[in-house]
Automatic annotation (TrEMBL):
PROSITE patterns per record: PX, SH3
Pfam families associated with the record: PX (PF00787), SH3_1 (PF00018)
Domain of life: Eukaryota
CDD domains: PX_FISH
One GO BP: superoxide anion generation
Organism: Esox lucius
A GO MF term: phosphatidylinositol binding
Polar residues biased stretches: 292-306
The protein's name in its UniProt record: SH3 and PX domains 2B
Length: 382
């Protein structure tokens, strides 16, 4: 039996932009393995975040949850600076800290640095070898001009309260403004707020300028295969059984798609479906497998305690977040149109700066202020 290869060295080399509908940045990572092989992989920041949460949950002592002084797991670079952040600027500022994080991670004791979660994270995935044909790439280097294509993160407002249920999630309150870093088809979005960053249900959010900005392009009546069973909880939903082939007739980014099966139409969790032709290819290659049929119907705690199935392993290898695998997000009330009673985001506080006058000034307008040289003033608006 050949020994399992282990991660030998990791170097985060650059940042790359993928011009897909979500316009996200990925980090280019060179991974050297114990067998002498070298591979290049691409990872979003949210994937580092998921890995960190998995490690902190698996190693609470080493993560400092019981005693901060005993923490040995490195800290992940912090949250995005709020107030309409530029995606590119944030990605570039994180480049060096993420490289230091990866290097520190693989220098930890073997039971952490070579655990399954770390090994799977750094393994090459299909999208690393065959990026989508519609995704063009442009490499960003530290010396590039900051003004080059400064994409802004989308801002959304919470329209319902949400209490987080996992360590990787954040809670929301009505009227709270967040910046969306990543939109996932599962209906879980990775966001940044003033206090924290993490995953939230897209159904709790609305765009201030475009309340209906949740559409997802797709061909008409695409065929998908059910990979997890699901028991309908509302009259407009459909029961699912593993292996069923359904037609998806309406897709969105809220995590619930409208499907048709044997003449019946209804809603189903998007994360429980996989495109039929892709799944068939994986089955033919002997890679895919069906998940356990007992622990997946919306109960993440039971799922995490169950033995990992081949289906779960396949999803982990593809880099899905835990939320894609564990449970669908709460459904939105379809009887309430989007944009109705949308809370206004709070006005950001004005920043006051202190200056000293360098010359006398006599105002000539009614609402002006006269002053002498050498007086300290506060500038409240520029």
């Amino acid at each position: 039996i050949m020994p399992r290869r282990t991660v030998h060295e990791v170097t985060v080399q650059d940042v790359q932009k993928r011009r897909n509908p979500n316009k996200h940045y990925v980090y280019i990572i060179k991974v050297s393995w114990s067998d002498g092989s070298t591979e290049v992989i691409f990872r979003r920041y949210s994937k580092f975040f998921d890995l960190q949460m998995e490690l902190l949950d698996k190693f609470p002592v080493e993560g400092g949850q019981k005693d901060p002084k005993r923490r040995i797991i490195p800290f992940l670079p912090g949250k995005i600076l709020f107030r309409r952040s530029h995606i590119r600027d944030v990605a570039m500022k994180r480049l060096r800290p993420i490289n230091e994080y990866c290097r520190a991670l693989i220098q930890l004791p073997v039971y952490i640095s070579q655990c399954e979660e770390v090994r799977v994270f750094f393994e090459t995935r299909p999208e690393d070898l065959n990026p989508p044909k519609d995704a063009t790439m442009s490499v960003i280097s530290p010396g590039d001009s900051i003004s080059a294509d400064p994409l802004l993160l989308d801002q959304y407002v919470a329209v319902t309260d949400y209490e987080k249920q996992e360590s990787s999630e954040i809670s929301l309150h009505v009227g709270q403004t967040v910046e969306v870093i990543e939109k996932n088809e599962s209906g879980w979005w990775f966001v940044s707020s003033d206090e924290a960053q993490g995953w939230v249900p897209a159904t709790c959010l609305e765009a201030q300028d475009d309340p209906d900005d949740f559409s997802l392009p797709g061909e008409e009546e695409e065929r998908y295969t059910v990979i997890y069973p699901y028991s309908a909880r509302d009259q407009d939903e459909i029961d699912l059984e593993s292996g069923m082939t359904v037609e998806v007739i309406q897709k969105n980014l809220e995590g619930w798609w409208k499907i048709r099966y044997q003449g019946q139409e209804g809603w189903a969790p998007a994360s429980y479906l996989k495109k039929a032709d892709i799944l068939s290819q994986k089955l033919a290659a002997g890679v895919a497998g069906h998940a356990s049929t007992n622990e997946l119907d919306g109960f993440p705690k039971q799922q995490s305690q169950a033995k990992e199935s081949r289906g779960d392993r396949e999803q982990k290898d593809k880099g899905f977040s835990p939320f894609t695998r564990q449970r669908p997000p709460p459904r939105r009330d379809l009887s309430i149109p989007r944009g109705q009673n949308l809370p206004k985001p709070p006005t950001p506080p004005q920043v006051e700066e202190e200056f000293y006058t360098i010359a006398d000034f006599q105002t000539t307008i009614p609402d002006g202020i006269s002053f002498q040289a050498g007086v300290k003033v506060e500038v409240r608006q520029t």
